């Protein structure tokens, strides 16, 4: 199999309007397409991340809880690349988002930190 990249990352949220606001207004991702699927009583929101990436935000009635501790088996976290981590942290905090202290990656020497989305999904910003 020859892959050319990651097409999208899918996230299921518990409160569609709250998560839509978080990903569009706080993180600043633009909406590509929003679809309500009546037969599933579910929304699908396609969001643009940077120039070439996409998040699919789904809502389903009563989704089960998932362990989101970064050390749990499965997807550990989702990391976003930023140019200026201090500016990104300031912007997140100004929007009321709790952000961990900035750390240095001991392997690359780059700055990074973590925060959570409205469903406690661990998110990272990584200064490139």
Helix/sheet category? alpha/beta
- State the distance separating the first and last CA atoms: 29 Å
Question: Helix segment count?
Answer: 2
Q: Major sheet, described briefly?
A: 4 strands, mixed
CATH topology of the largest domain: 2,3-Dihydroxybiphenyl 1,2-Dioxygenase, domain 1
Second rung of CATH, namely the architecture of the largest domain? Roll
Count of discrete domains:
2
Order of helices and strands: EHEEEEHEEE
Number of strands: 8
CATH class of the largest domain: Alpha Beta
CATH superfamily of the largest domain: 2,3-Dihydroxybiphenyl 1,2-Dioxygenase, domain 1
Mean pLDDT: 92
> Which assembly state applies to the chains in this document?
single chain
